[in-house]
Specification:
Blueprint (H helix, E strand, L loop, with lengths): L1 E6 L2 E4 L4 E9 L6 E7 L6 E6 L6 E3 L7 E6 L4 E6 L8 E8 L11 E2 L3 E6 L1
């Protein structure tokens, strides 16, 4: 198993930036594809971005493509989500997740963090 802890959420004005981090512990971090998901009030959880085990491949939801960047540092057991040009509609709880079969583009992740709140004011 792997344990995940997110950090970096907060309140930001529209057009601003935030960088989320997710620290992993437990099994070897590089054994997992990693993803970021979000869930806004009254909406279903959706995938935001995913990254393959070695970081060589990424996936982005259409709503964030060109604004968000996912990356990972396997030496530091951490995955990041750089969020630029934030919009009020990006407001949500953001979760990181781990998936062992490298299907980083799917929503079928097995392990989840507790989430971090991101609020974008207009």
């Amino acid at each position: 198993q792997v344990q995940l802890v997110e950090s970096g959420g907060g309140l930001v004005q529209a057009g601003g930036s935030l960088r989320l981090s997710c620290a992993a512990s437990g099994r070897t971090f590089s054994s997992y594809a990693m993803g970021w998901f979000r869930q806004a009030p009254g909406k279903e959880r959706e995938i935001v971005a995913g990254i393959s085990k070695n970081g060589g491949n990424t996936f982005y939801a259409g709503s964030v493509k060109g604004r968000f960047t996912i990356s990972r540092d396997n030496a530091k057991n951490t995955v990041f989500l750089q969020m630029n040009s934030l919009k009020p509609e990006d407001t949500a709880v953001y979760y990181c997740a781990a998936e062992p079969s490298n299907a980083y583009w799917t929503s079928r992740y097995d392990y989840w963090g507790q989430g971090t709140q991101v609020t974008v004011s207009s």
